[in-house]
Write a sequence for this structure.
């Protein structure tokens, strides 16, 4: 049987890893796919690098559209990134009857609905295991392994840079800015780290996971996003004292009025497995009604881990081409004409528990005033720590954990508390999830 010919767009970090894995495990992959898979064409702006890596075993060009339109190419692998030229290339490949494999979470989160519709109409498939959590097979788990379940919620550490920063802040007691500089020196954070530290990268990935879990279209613009740049080492220490760790989580959950879709720093009980995921590692916790909680852990980025997912997609698409493409797994797990129109909840309607830290004047009656405001907003206190003031100091921190409350009620309470003359500055609020 003739080999499957692949056109590779971008041979940088992940692209070179994909080439390496295909070359190194060629025979193993052939045995699993049922036929050989080879990269026949490569498009990259750096022609010298591409030619050095491929050593004459693939045609190299600087024109990516030459690859998407080549008659001999069966699958196009898009590893360029971004949402502009990558979108044009993917749609062009689909229009020319090519199956597509991509690791581009930003592209799918923002333009996935258009891309999947085009692929459905043309009768080709778009595979994207590498778009979320690198080498962790979370897409396949949601689309296939958990297909018997009604997914209740997903909570994931899905950005390694932010997890590294939070781990270092907790372990070393360092400030956010110091650890960010360290992450940039180590290559974990970009020169402009905004996408990572402000939760945008995680929101792209969560949008994909949510669509797969609940059978909805991609709705990235409705995701609530809050990053870690305002977290202090004091809050991390207080959380630890109360038996919690702070993680940047992507959370999507079925609720009575719609679907929650939110990324933000979250207190997680220290005894939970996901709370003990450290450094640049990723982990996704999925709760299904039949199977219960399942945890998926591993490297969320890097050349070979991400290439592992790209090649797995190549094998899957090869099997589809070889067998019956009329019965392939739907792009978003549910049949395209059966996607749900359930709404995404605004953050004000979300119900969860909260960590609140207040700097107050150390005098009688302050706590009573705060408790009255919380009670008026239907918020009850679960636990509280009040630090003794230093000698000669008239200000003190109060830290509270609340029972579950509606976010808009918490917003109202915080607004009222901050108006008290005895409360100094802004109230720090971090959401809390038990993840049961």
């Amino acid at each position: 049987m003739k080999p499957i010919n692949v056109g590779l767009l971008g041979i940088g970090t992940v692209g070179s890893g994909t080439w390496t894995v295909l070359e190194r495990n060629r025979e193993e992959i052939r045995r699993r796919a049922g036929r050989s898979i080879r990269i026949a064409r490569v498009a990259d702006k750096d022609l010298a690098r591409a030619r050095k890596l491929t050593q004459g075993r693939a045609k190299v060009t600087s024109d990516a559209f030459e690859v998407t339109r080549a008659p001999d190419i069966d699958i196009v692998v898009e590893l360029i990134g971004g949402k502009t030229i990558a979108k044009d290339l993917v749609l062009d490949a689909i229009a020319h009857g090519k199956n597509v494999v991509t690791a581009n979470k930003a592209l799918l989160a923002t333009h996935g609905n258009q891309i999947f519709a085009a692929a459905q109409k043309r009768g080709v498939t778009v595979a994207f295991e590498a778009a979320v959590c690198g080498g962790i097979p979370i897409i396949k788990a949601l689309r296939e392994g958990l297909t018997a379940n009604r997914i209740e919620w997903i909570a994931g550490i899905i950005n390694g840079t932010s997890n590294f920063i939070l781990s270092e802040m907790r372990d070393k007691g360092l400030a956010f800015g110091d650890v960010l500089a360290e992450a940039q020196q180590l290559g974990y954070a970009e020169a402009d780290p905004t996408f990572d530290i402000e939760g945008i990268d995680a929101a792209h990935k969560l949008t994909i996971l949510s669509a797969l879990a609940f059978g909805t279209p991609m709705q990235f613009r409705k995701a609530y996003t809050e990053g870690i740049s305002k977290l202090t080492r004091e809050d991390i220490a207080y959380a630890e004292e109360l038996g919690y760790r702070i993680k940047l989580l992507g959370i999507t959950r079925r609720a009575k009025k719609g679907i929650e879709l939110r990324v933000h720093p979250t207190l997680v009980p220290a005894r939970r497995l996901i709370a003990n995921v450290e450094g640049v590692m990723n982990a996704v916790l999925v709760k299904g009604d039949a199977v219960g909680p399942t945890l998926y852990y591993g490297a969320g980025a890097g050349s070979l881990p991400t290439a592992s997912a790209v090649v797995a997609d190549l094998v899957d698409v090869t099997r589809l081409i070889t067998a019956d493409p009329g019965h392939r797994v739907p792009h978003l797990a549910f049949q395209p004409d059966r996607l749900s129109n359930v709404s995404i909840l605004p953050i004000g309607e979300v119900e969860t528990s909260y960590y609140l830290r207040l700097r107050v004047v150390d005098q009688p009656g302050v706590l009573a005033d705060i408790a009255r405001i919380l009670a008026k907003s239907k918020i009850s206190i679960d636990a509280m720590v009040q630090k003794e003031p230093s000698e000669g100091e008239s200000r003190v921190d109060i830290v509270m954990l609340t029972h579950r409350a509606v976010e808009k009620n918490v917003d109202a309470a915080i607004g009222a508390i901050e108006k008290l003359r005895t409360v100094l500055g802004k109230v720090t609020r971090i959401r809390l999830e038990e993840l049961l």
About this structure: The mean pLDDT is 94. The chain has three domains: 4-135+303-330, 138-299, 351-432.
